[in-house]
Amino acid sequence: MATRLGLDVRGFDAPLGAEITGLDLRKPLDRETVAEILAAWYRHQVLVFPDQDLSPQQMVDFTGQFGEPGKPRMPSRTVRDILPNLPPEVMIVSNIRVDGKPMGLPHDGEMWFHSDMCYVEVPHTATLLYAVELPSWGGNTLFADMYAAYDSLPASLRNRLEDCRALHIHDYKRTDRPSLDVDLDKVGNFAHPVFITHPETGRKALYVNRLMTARIEGLDPAESDGLLEELFTASEDRSLVYEHVWKPGDLVMWDNRCITHARTDFPENERRLLRRTTIVGTQAPR
To answer: What is the secondary structure of 169-198 as a DSSP string?
Structure first.
């Protein structure tokens, strides 16, 4: 649908997501355009801005028009040594090694579904990812609709878990569940409601994910594991997923309160480099 601002929003032939064209994101946006983008974001959950040419600082500036840009919790010394002028709000998502050391946190191959920073009390509400270098195939990002996942659950299961909380742990290996044997004093962790209400849309969403959710609080391990597997299966149903095949210059923005995302495998001998920013949250999920 075209808008009076010249901004064009085209919903995908997919369960979620939309492409926005007609904007040069290097330039400041007026209030009406910001409001239009937010309305599209709340409706479609994932927005793709193709064919952008953004410096790291321009990406931070764009992010800042929608809220306070976050900073990586574990900035990489390697990245700062190589890119001393990289803004502190930018995280490098890459498999590139320099002198044998990862250029930032290692981002290789497949990665299970997760929600960014669900292991802190107030997670960042949005993540933005910008493609710089891409492999010849793979490294696609899968986005799953957690509104639809919640709606798909049997009423009996929703009623049973309505007041339950799930523990999320920042201790994972890309394709492994977090261990409950870890010392929680040494890793990020927080228990959030299994179901949350989005503060802007008022819609209910499932808020667990296979990569970081370790247990449902108050249940014995076997019962917790069984219920979580049921929730994971519902949340990863491919009928609820949009798969983004990256092109250089794509900027993708998604809502961590109603989306989980995953990464498909890609050649380990080919370079992949994206820049990431986030928007700081203002309240804990509830």
So the answer is: ES---SSSPPPTTS-GGGS-EEEEESEEE-
Measured in degrees and rounded to the nearest 5, phi and psi for residue 220 equal: -70, 155
What letter does residue 257 receive in the DSSP assignment? T
Q: What is the pLDDT of residues 214-231, one digit of tens each?
A: 999 999 999 999 999 999
Instruction: Using CA atoms of 92, 94, 96, 97 in order, give the dihedral in degrees to the nearest 10.
Output: 60
Q: Can you tell me the distance from the alpha carbon of 129 to that of 131, in angstroms, rounded to the nearest whole number? A: 7
Q: Report which listed range, 91-95, 104-108, 199-203, is most confident.
A: 199-203
Domains of the chain by range and CATH? 8-107+115-136+244-279 (3.60.130.10), 145-235 (no CATH)
How far apart CA 152 and CA 158 sit, in angstroms, is 10
DSSP H helical ranges for the chain? 31-44, 56-63, 77-82, 146-152, 155-161, 221-235
DSSP state of 178: P
Q: Which tokens in the block code for residue 225?
A: 């594991």
